[in-house]
Specification:
By secondary structure, this protein is α/β, with parallel strands linked by helices. The chain is built from five helices and seven strands. Bound molecules: guanosine-5'-triphosphate (GTP) and magnesium ion (MG).
């Protein structure tokens, strides 16, 4: 996959708009503000490929990016932002369910969690959904640059236990969009599933 050949493809705000497709897809999921869009910008080495904001709930659509005509990158709207209105939450849930349940060719879901905290209830709901749906997923533990070495090691070990229900084989990859930690490894993992 040529990381220099990525282009924005489309944004979808309702399920009905999302076209069926058998193109291999790599999907980025996680709560609002966890760093999905930043991760994409880091992976593709582009400042503004996906929009980043300090305001949670920035990405409110499912965004498709295409790498040449080979692979699709999917930036999902974040969940778990308390101030979102009920109607919006319903729209989000319908869109996510519809997306995952339509016939697609999802090669990998990169589930982001904040390395600093125990995964949220919504994170567990999301990961259990992925597991039950039989979708291949890994966990990227983001914002690793925000911890010092001791804290970081503590949280790395704690996360393994907090995510124990998903099995010993679950890949947990520390990641920093700020410093680049984990970026090369994530690219290798993505290559390996394509
Ligand atoms: N220090 C640090 N900050 C980060 C990192 N990743 C993201 N951020 C910051 O966290 C905030 C949210 O990042 P986004 O990439 O917009 O998060 P998102 O998951 O796309 O959020 P939604 O679009 O709301 O779902 C921004 O202020 C980023 O600069 C990281 O690895 N390290
Ligand atoms: Mg985003």
């Amino acid at each position: 996959m040529n990381y220099n050949k990525v282009e924005f493809e489309a944004a979808f705000g309702t399920l009905k708009q999302i076209p069926q497709s058998d193109l291999p897809e790599i999907v980025f999921a996680g709560r609002s503000n966890v760093g999905k869009s930043s991760m994409l910008n880091r992976l593709f080495n582009r400042k503004n490929l996906a929009r980043v904001s300090s305001m949670p709930g920035k990405t409110i659509t499912i965004n498709f990016f295409k790498v040449e005509n080979d692979v699709r990158i999917v930036d999902l709207p974040g969940y778990g932002y308390a101030k979102v209105a009920k109607g919006e939450k319903r729209r989000w849930a319908e869109m996510m369910e519809g997306y995952f349940q339509s016939p697609r060719n999802i090669k990998l879901v990169v589930q982001l969690v904040d390395v600093r905290h125990k995964p949220s209830e919504d994170d567990y709901i999301m990961m259990r959904f992925l597991q039950e749906a039989g979708l291949p997923f890994i966990v990227a533990a983001t914002k690793s640059d925000k911890l010092n070495k001791t804290q970081y090691n503590e949280r790395k070990n704690a996360l393994r236990e907090e995510l124990a229900e998903f099995g010993d084989n679950l890949t947990i990859l520390p990641f920093s969009s700020e410093k680049g930690e984990g970026a090369e490894e994530l690219k290798k993992i993505i290559e390996s599933v394509l």
